[in-house]
Amino acid sequence: MIESNGTVEEFPDRIASAVEEAIREAAATEIMPRWRQLAAHEVDRKTGPHDLVTDADRKAELYLTEALAALLPGSVVVGEEAVHANPLTYEAIRGDAPVWIVDPVDGTRQFVHGEDGFCTLVALARGGVLHASWTYAPARGQLATAVRGRGAFLDGERLTSGAPDPGRDLEVATSHPDFTTDEQKHALLGLRTPGVSPRACGSAGLEYLAIARGRLDAVAFSWEAAWDHAAGLLLVEEAGGAHLTRSGEPFRITGGNTLPFTAARDAATARRVADLLSEGA
User: Fold this and answer.
1) CA-CA distance, 273 to 101, in Å (whole number)?
2) Number of structural domains, the chain?
3) Is 163 contained in some domain?
4) Which of the four, 44, 87, 108, 120, has the lowest number of CB atoms within 10 Å?
5) Which of 242, 236, 224 lies closest to 184 in space, CA to CA?
6) pLDDT tens-digit readout, 173-216
7) Are residues 146 and 37 in the same domain?
8) Distance CA 171, CA 194 (A)
C-alpha cells in the first residue's frame, strides 16, 4: 500500500478520513478547551524562553499516538514531546516502517498567548519519503491535506501556489534568531538584499500553508525537526512549490541537510532564495 519509493496509488481514503477524524478529535478534546484557558502550571519551558510546552501538547500527542498507530499495523509514531523525553525515538524516521510524524501544537508560543496562529501537524512517511500530510488550524477552522501525486487541498479546494508577481519584493519568513547558529545567522543575512523582504516566522505549519496558498513566497528555516517540516513540505510540493537546502539539494526529513533551507512557491523562487542563503554564508 505504501512503498518507500513513493508509490501511493492505493492509499486508502478510509485511512485519510480516519486520520482527519483523529486530528479533529484530539483538538476538540485536548487542545481547544485549553486555548485561552491555560493555568500557569500547565505551561513549561523546554530549552529556552521561546521553546514552550503545555498540557495541550502532551495530551494531544498521547491521543494521536494511540489513534494513529492503530490505523496502520506495523507503523510507528514520532512525536515532538516523545522525542523530547527520549531522543532515540527520532531514529524511527530513518527506519523501514511507516512512520507518523506528529506535532500536536505547532506554534505553542502563539497558543500560550491566546492567538489563533497554531495548528496540529501530522505526516505519514516511509523510508524518508513523505506520502500524506494534514495541517489543522482548529481556531481558524482550516484543514489542509496532501497525498503524494494527488495534489494539495484546503477544506476540499485544490491549492496552487503559483509564482510570485514579477517586480514585487519576495516575502520570506525566517527562523527566530534564538534557533540559529552564528553560521546560519550569516546565511540569513543574505536575504537582506534589494528585492527580498524577510520577516520573522510564526507557526511553521501555517507558514507552509501560506506558501501553498500563494500568500507567502518562501521560508528560510535553520532547524531540521521533522515534525515542524514534514507536513508542510509535502503540502508545498503538491501545490506546485519546491524546497532546497543551502547546498542546492532537496530537504531530507531523515536529516543531514545543509542549513538554512528554503521552501518556496515555485522552483525558481526556491533557487533564488537558496542562492542568497549560500552567498550570505
Assistant:
1) 27
2) 2
3) no
4) 87
5) 224
6) 999 877 788 899 999 999 999 999 999 999 999 999 999 999 99
7) yes
8) 12
DSSP string, 226-256: HHHHHHHHHHHHHTT-EEEETTSS---TTS-
Position 1 pLDDT exceeds 60: no
Residue 196 CA to residue 169 CA, distance in Å, equals 5
Grid coordinates representing 66 are 494511540
Q: What angle do CA 269, 251, 75 make, to 5 degrees?
A: 135
Say what the pTM is. Answer: 0.93
**Shared-domain flag, residues 89 and 151:** yes
Q: How far apart are CA 147 and CA 131, in angstroms?
A: 6
Q: Is residue 23 part of a domain?
A: yes
CA dihedral 108, 112, 113, 116 (to 10 degrees): 60
Sign of CA dihedral 205, 210, 214, 216: negative
Structural domain range at position 20:
13-158
**76 within a domain of the structure (yes/no):** yes
Rounded to whole angstroms, the Cα distance separating 158 from 156 reads 7
Indicate the burial class of 75 (C-beta count within 10 angstroms; 0-12, 13-18, 19 or more). middle
